[in-house]
Amino acid sequence: MKTGLIVIGVILLIIFAFVGMGVSRYNHLIQLETSVDASWAQVENQLQRRVDLIPNLVNTVRGYADHEQEIFTEVANARSRLLAANTPEEQIVANQGLEGSLGRLLAISESYPQLKADGSFIRLQDELAGTENRIAVERMRYNESVQKWNASILQFPTVLIASSFGKTARPFFQATPQAQDVPRVEF
């Protein structure tokens, strides 16, 4: 009788240990997932800051280069796609289009010396450069969080818990292929 109680006690202790480990791993997953979400929110904040700067930048350039209507339409459409994107994946794709359009808009300024000398254009360019730096920092932090998350959900035994709760890998925020191509400016 006493041996039976000891065996039951050991079995219950083992069960509680596994349940405790499972709860601990699940809580760790929630902590990592929250970190990824918070990092993405910071990326969104900086993307919104850039989106808010674009109308002023476009209007300033338009004052000097009104006949460049195609690029203004392209920038407006890219901005709208970013604002309409709902998921991080959609926002990453929309951001890539916006980066390309902004690069072409800023390249136009090279053809207009008066625009390059305009005080408000210079301030907007500086604000945009600062925002791009902030986006780069937040993108790096987001990618670090995603790396920790993705590595964690693939490790045993966490992979069992992650898959049973439908936790999947998150996408990295990667540079666009267009970011590799620096626009050439010729005079």
Q: Would you give an account of this structure?
A:
- There is one protein chain.
- Helices cover 79% and strands 0% of the residues.
- The chain has helices at residues 2-64, 69-84, 88-108, 113-117, 119-154, 158-164.
- The termini are far apart.
- The model is unreliable at 180-187 (pLDDT under 50).
For the report, how would you describe the main beta sheet?
none
Structure annotation, total helices: 6
Shape descriptor reads: rod-shaped
Low-confidence stretches: 180-187
Order of helices and strands: HHHHHH
Radius of gyration: 25 Å
Task: Tell me the β content.
Answer: under 5%
What oligomeric state is this?
Answer: single chain
Question: How many β-strands, per DSSP?
Answer: 0
Mean pLDDT: 85
Structure classification: mainly alpha
Euclidean distance between termini CA atoms: 97 Å
Helix content: over 70%
Give me the secondary-structure topology:
Blueprint: H1 2-64, H2 69-84, H3 88-108, H4 113-117, H5 119-154, H6 158-164
